Each structure stands twice: as structure tokens, then as C-alpha cells.
Hints:
Helix content: under 10%
Structural class: little secondary structure
Order of helices and strands: EEHH
Largest sheet: 2 strands, antiparallel
Strand content: under 5%
Number of strands: 2
Shape: flat
Strand order of the largest sheet: 1-2
Low-confidence stretches: none
Distance between the termini: 47 Å
Amino acid sequence: xxxxxxxxxxxxxxxxxxxxxxxxxxxxxxxxxxxxxxxxxxxxxxxxxxxxxxxxxxxxxxxxxxxxxxxxxxxxxxxxxxxxxxxxxxxxxxxxxxxxxxxxxxxxxxxxxxxxxxxxxxxxxxxxxxxxxxxxxxxxxxxxxxxxxxxxxxxxxxxxxxxxxxxxxxxxxxxxxxxxxxxxxxxxxxxxxxxxxxxxxxxxxxxxxxxxxxxxxxxxxxxxxxxxxxxxxxxxxxxxxxxxxxxxxxxxxx
Length: 254
């Protein structure tokens, strides 16, 4: 097509970013959550505070007071009682249930309370000797206790000096050692050199495998063609279609 068909510098090209027309979807089947109201509000949008008006409370069927038309009977009655002079009444003598056991004034002797009421000098008494109360002495004597030893390294509560001990003479390495009991060279086993040196590779020889006994028709070496080369990979052109093609939806589930 010539350049005179297009108007301006615009030319057909693929979009720089993804657009909704390039993808197939259910269309307007799904509704976006509303941005108004309190219930089912869009969680990705800020929600303003919502307030509701309360309901009218029902009126009480029973009255809790007489109202302003109440007349106080009897008259001259105030919030603190009746407005009148104090009145007294004479009751009968109460009957005493039981005689009182409280001591009277003659049972007390105030003159004898001088030592307990006023300060006085200390007074001491000499008690009698308590003989014969303990027939057998239960306290242990000095011979009952054992004084720990102050010799040796195990002294309790003391710092002991270093102690040494003298052992007997050893026969190993001395002139009294019997060298005939020393093991000879044949008493030691030969150590494998692979333990303390770099070990060389090791191989093993297996037994000969038996010939196959089945009668299957397997291809031999002559069945393969070595001169046949592999064909190069090819590409094909697809069907031309529009990126904005929308498939018609005839049956949509509710």
C-alpha cells in the first residue's frame, strides 16, 4: 500500500502494552463491586464512614409515676417527711430475757493495780533447784566427736602440701626385660599400600555373558543407512486472523 493512504505519521503496529481486546474473557458477565454504600463495598477503595438513623422506640404501656396531677395526701407533706412538730409516744417496759452476768462496781479492786499501773523497780525470784527431772544425761560428751586427721591430701578446711608417691621399678626397657618375648617381623601383617598412598584404579573381570535364546527378529547392522542425513527443521505460516476478533457468546450461564 502506498504512503498516501495513511493520514499523519501513524502506521499500523502492535500495541506497546497489553489491552483488553487481545484477551478473550467472559465480557460484562461479572460486575465490579460498587463504591457507594457500606455493604458489598469495593475493598480496594477507601470507604467513608456511614451513619444510620435509629428507629422510633415504642412507648411504654405502663406508667412509672402518677404524673403532675398527683395530690399529696395528707397535706403538709414534704420530701423530708411531714411538716409538723416532733411527736413522741410512750412504749411499755421491755421484758429482760435473762439476768445480766456483768460484774458490778464492787467486784473491782483499784488499790491492787498499783504495780501494773504505775512504774516500779524490777523484781526477781530465786527458783528451786530442779533435781531428779532428767534421770539420764542425753548430751554427748567430748569423746563422742572424732577430730579429722591433719595429715595427707584429704584435710577438711585446710590447704595441704603436694604429696608424692614412689612406685616400683618397671621391667620394660631395663636389663631385667626378657627380649625373647618380643614379637618378630612375622607377627605383623602387611598393610595395604592403598591405605597410606594414592590407590591405583582397580578393575574386575566378569564372566562371559550367555547368548540370547529368544527368536525375536531384531535388526542387524546392515538394516541402518549411515549415509542418510537428517532433514533440517522447517517452519510453516499460520492462518491470518485479527487480534481484535471477539467470539460471539450465544449461551451464557447466569
